């Protein structure tokens, strides 16, 4: 009987322990203009969760095209990706936010698929 009480008390203690809150995503804003990324050098820490917020301040549609990076990152909401998971499309005047966990260390290419010819390119560095 005592044994049973102890077991019950143990269960209650476990249930009463506060749930540790998950680390909130680190906000990271990248602005898209005609035709650049601001900033065009994005530095992330491997394994950190980010809320990548893309704002299109331009008059043209822009794309955050980073196939290797988006494939390597952990992205719960894959439906936010376009063109086979290679990019995030942002219409002019609109924004998009995607939560992702940065992949392993490395350097990943970034372009706007429509305006790379005009120098709309960047680099994503994970350290
Ligand atoms: Cu563009």
Task: Please explain how this structure is put together.
Helix content is 17%, strand content 39%. It has one domain: Sandwich (Immunoglobulin-like), CATH 2.60.40.420. The strands form 3 sheets. It has a 4-stranded mixed beta sheet, with no helix packed on it. The protein is globular, with a radius of gyration of 21 Å. The N and C termini lie far apart (56 Å). The chain has helices spanning 2-16, 67-72; strands at 26-33, 36-38, 41-44, 49-56, 62-65, 87-90, 95-101, 106-111, 121-126. It has 127 residues and is α/β, with parallel strands linked by helices. The mean pLDDT is 89. Copper (II) ion is lined by residues 35, 60, 62-63, 112, 114-115, 120.
**Assigned CATH class:** Mainly Beta
Q: In CATH terms, what is the fold-level topology?
A: Immunoglobulin-like
How many domains make up the coordinates?
1
Helix residue percentage: 10-25%
Task: Give a quick precis of the structure.
The protein has 127 residues and is an alpha/beta fold. It has helices at residues 2-16, 67-72, and strands spanning 26-33, 36-38, 41-44, 49-56, 62-65, 87-90, 95-101, 106-111, 121-126.
Q: Which labels suit this protein?
A:
single chain, 127 residues, alpha/beta, Immunoglobulin-like, four-stranded mixed sheet, 2 helices, binds copper (II) ion
